[in-house]
Write a structure and sequence with these properties.
By secondary structure, the chain is of the alpha+beta class. Helix content is about 30%, strand content about 35%. The protein has a 7-stranded mixed beta sheet, sandwiched between helices. Strand 2 and strand 3 form a beta hairpin.
Length: about 170
């Protein structure tokens, strides 16, 4: 098995969309659903996006974006630490058959390092129901900033935890 983490390309999107549909069927992630997985992966405010691949097949993804209006972690981080620039880590998923190989950890490390290189702290909102993801972030040294609500639509909100990555030199 040859696993690599590399910048995402447009050619990765169809395979990643299929993986996302599989992840949603298994885990209920993303909570918004996957009616249009390609649109969910389209990140107009992206700083970067990376693909995990095994034997040249995309099996996972993570992104780093500018903070947006629905992101609670940057707001809570600013309230606690002041005007330190942040970047939002998100859209992290791994195909179920590819789990347990350290790919999620490698993707998080890659995105976090990219944030550090541009002088920002990585933050995120993780759904409380996604206990494997919460556990991963805690193991990697992420710190909870507070409980928040992720608004799925105008009628539904999902309990979430805003978190900040480990301190860096930025």
């Amino acid at each position: 098995m040859t696993a690599t983490i590399r910048p995402r390309t447009d050619e990765d999107l169809p395979a990643l969309a299929k993986v996302l549909v599989e992840v949603h069927a298994t885990d209920g992630y993303p909570v918004e659903g996957v009616d249009d997985p390609l649109a969910w992966l389209d990140l107009p405010n992206a700083i970067g996006a990376w693909t995990a691949e095994v034997n040249r097949t995309p099996v996972g993804h993570v992104s780093l974006t500018e903070p947006g209006p629905g992101d609670e972690a940057p707001r809570l981080f600013a309230r606690r630490f002041g005007a330190v620039p942040t970047a939002v880590l998100g859209r992290l998923f791994i195909a179920p058959p590819a789990r347990g190989q350290g790919l999620a950890q490698a993707l998080v490390a890659t995105a976090s390092e990219a944030a550090r290189r541009i002088g920002r702290r990585a933050v995120l909102d993780v759904m409380r129901k996604d206990q494997a993801a919460v556990g991963l972030y805690v193991r990697l040294g992420w710190t909870p900033l507070g409980e928040v609500a992720h608004h799925v639509n105008e009628h539904r909100a999902e309990p979430a935890i805003a978190m900040v990555g480990p301190p860096t030199d930025c």
